[in-house]
Amino acid sequence: MASILVAYGTGEGQTAKIAERIVAALQTRGHATDGVDVGARLGGAFDVGDYDAVLVGASIHGGRHQSAVRRFVETHRDALSTRPTGFFQVCLTAASPDEERQAEAAGYVDEFVETTEWRPDRIAIFGGALRYSSYGFLKRALLKRVARDIVGDTDTTEDVEYTDWDEVDRFAADFAAFVEERVRIDATKTKPQEADGD
Ligand SMILES: Cc1cc2nc3c(=O)[nH]c(=O)nc-3n(C[C@H](O)[C@H](O)[C@H](O)COP(=O)(O)O)c2cc1C
Fold this sequence. Notes:
CATH superfamily of the largest domain: Flavodoxin domain
Bound molecules: flavin mononucleotide
Radius of gyration: 18 Å
Number of domains: 2
Distance between the termini: 26 Å
Largest sheet: 5 strands, parallel
Helix content: 40-55%
CATH class of the largest domain: Alpha Beta
Order of helices and strands: EHEEHHEHEEHEH
Number of strands: 7
Structural class: alpha/beta
CATH topology of the largest domain: Rossmann fold
Strand order of the largest sheet: 2-1-3-4-5
Number of helices: 6
Strand content: 15-25%
C-alpha cells in the first residue's frame, strides 16, 4: 500500500470531479489517498514529503493553468522530483477531434512542464465540461463561440461533459500500477541495507 496525494486546481468543478474519481480508484486499490484542492487550501498546510507519490491536476482557462497549481509545483519541485508523480490536465481542446486542437492541448502541458521544470512520470489530458446553466449571458455567449470553434457544438441549453471517464479510470489504474512497482523496487533496494546493519 502506498500513500498518494492528488493535488489539483479547479475553476468550475470538473477537475475536482475527475480528481475525486481518481482518488476513489486509488483507494479501491488499497492506497491511502488524499485529494486536496490547492486553490482552496492555505499554502504550506500539508507536507508533500508525507506521501509516497503525487498526482497533480489542473484545468485550462483562457490558455492558462491555475496559478495555485503552478505555485504548488514550484514550491514542492524538489519533493516531486524524488517520488513517482503524474500530471493530468483538463481542457476543452482535448475533446476536439482536430489534430491541431489536440496539439494545442499538448502544448499547454509542454509549456507547464518547461516553465515549472518538473518532469512528471505520467501525463494525461482529459476533455472538460461546460456548465452553461451557471453562466451569465455574456459568458454563455463567449463559451458558445469557444465550443463551436473547438468541438463544433452550439447548443447551450444543457451543460455538456466531454470527459471520457473510461480514459480517467485507465489513467488511474496505470498510475497505481506504476506507483506499486516503484514501491516494490524501493522495498527490495532497502532490504539488503537493513540486513547489513544487523
Ligand atoms: C472562461 C473559460 C475559459 C476557458 N478557456 C479554455 C481554453 O483556453 N482552452 C481550453 O482548451 N479550454 C478552455 N476552457 C474549457 C475548460 O478547460 C473546461 O471547461 C474545464 O472543464 C474546466 O475545468 P474546471 O471546471 O476544473 O475549471 C475554458 C472554460 C471557461 C469556462
